[in-house]
Amino acid sequence: MMLRLVFISVFIAISTADFVPIGFKNCNSLSTLNGVEVDGCTVKELEGGKKQCLIKQGTTPKIRVNFTPNEDIATMKTKVKAKIGSGSYVDFPMETDDACKSSLKCPLKKGTAYSYNWGIEMMHQYPLNENIQVNWILSRDGKAKDICFIFLVKLEA
């Protein structure tokens, strides 16, 4: 029952959110990546045409990934890595890596548009005012990158 309440709360929060398109780089997704949006983000234009998502520390921004699979997908896992400044990549902790237990209802059908939604808490121990590169991957087998995109974030007070 408690788990059901959590999912309902997340669904209500996501459905009433104010999503904005962000800049991202598609890293060879096998599926068609139609767009990435974030609620709780102010988009800042950077040099060279890049865009950065400014997020307030202590908030829980929500991401929405719009995509269309190019083949049927039975299950899907998610993996998020972050690179802070010029450091190395670290795995970003997630409640579950099973994307089918979020807003996606698997199996996914080839040629049908889907939206993957997820909220991530920006904890106070995360560094402020650092450039962060986020790599987000959704895959059916942990290897093939059905969806892969990179975007830039900076946490603010």
Automatic annotation (TrEMBL):
Main location: secreted
Xref: SMART domains: ML
Full protein name: MD-2-related lipid-recognition domain-containing protein
Molecular function via GO: sterol binding
Subcellular location: Secreted
Keyword Signal attached: yes
Protein family (similarity comment): Belongs to the NPC2 family.
Domain of life: Eukaryota
Secretion signal span: 1-17
One cellular-component annotation, GO: extracellular region
SUPFAM superfamilies: E set domains (SSF81296)
Signal found in the keyword field: yes
Domain MD-2-related lipid-recognition: 24-153
Keyword entries, A-Z: Secreted, Signal
Classification via Gene3D superfamilies: 2.60.40.770
